[in-house]
Amino acid sequence: MCVWTCRVYCRALEEKSKTQFSTAFDEVILLIAARVTYRPRGTTQENKLRVRHVLSCTGPQSDYRKLNDPLVKQLLVRDLLAPDPLRIGAYTAEGGYICNREGQVISGLYTLGSTQKGRLYESVAVPELRGQAADLAAHLLASALA
After folding, report:
1. What pLDDT, in 10s, does the model give residues 3-19?
2. Which of 33, 79, 90, 102 could disulfide-link to 115, CB 3.0 to 4.6 Å?
3. What is the span of the domain harbouring residue 23?
């Protein structure tokens, strides 16, 4: 199933020019003509397979130190943003606050969504995002009225 899906997807990629790829993913790795060693889940047996294409679909870059974005780079340099210890999101605190390298909350900087994966793990589905947005909106409104 996976090999078939990859094969179909890779054929579709061959038909597109490199300029048509979305830049939403910082790491899309496409190797041509490779030997793959894999172990089926639940077994200890390694299998080898010669493939025409290997496509890494690990999603967007989550390690903020590796992002090539001027805003993110400046926030990191000024210690107004830090990657979480697992390097799968930003260092955040309860309420969506962004933290510095030492874990101290940065007043006035908030986030929601996948940047909180390091703390919440599940932070990409619509119900979680809706809840985070509602909580942050309520907090900001209460702060403004205080």
Report:
1. 333 444 444 444 443 43
2. 90
3. 2-56
Count Cα atoms within 13 angstroms, Cβ side, for 137.
Answer: 6
Q: Is 72 in contact with 81 (CB distance < 8 Å)?
A: yes
What's the pLDDT score for residue 53? 60
pLDDT value at position 11?
43
Q: Say how many C-beta atoms besides its own lie within 10 A of residue 119's C-beta.
A: 19
Are 10 and 76 contained in the same domain?
no
* Whether residues 41 and 20 fall in one domain: yes
Burial class (CB in 10 A: 0-12, 13-18, 19+), 20: exposed
Q: Is 99 helix (H, G, I), strand (E, B) or coil?
A: strand
* Last residue within a domain, chosen from 35, 56, 77: 56
Q: What's the distance, CA 121 to chain centroid?
A: 11
pLDDT digits (tens, 9 = 90+) for 30-53: 445 567 777 788 888 888 887 766
5: left (phi over 0), alpha (psi -120 to 50) or beta: alpha
Quote the percentage of the chain above a pLDDT of 90.
18
Q: Rounded to the nearest 5 degrees, what angle is found at the Cα of 124, between the Cα atoms of 123 and 129?
A: 75
Prediction pTM value: 0.59
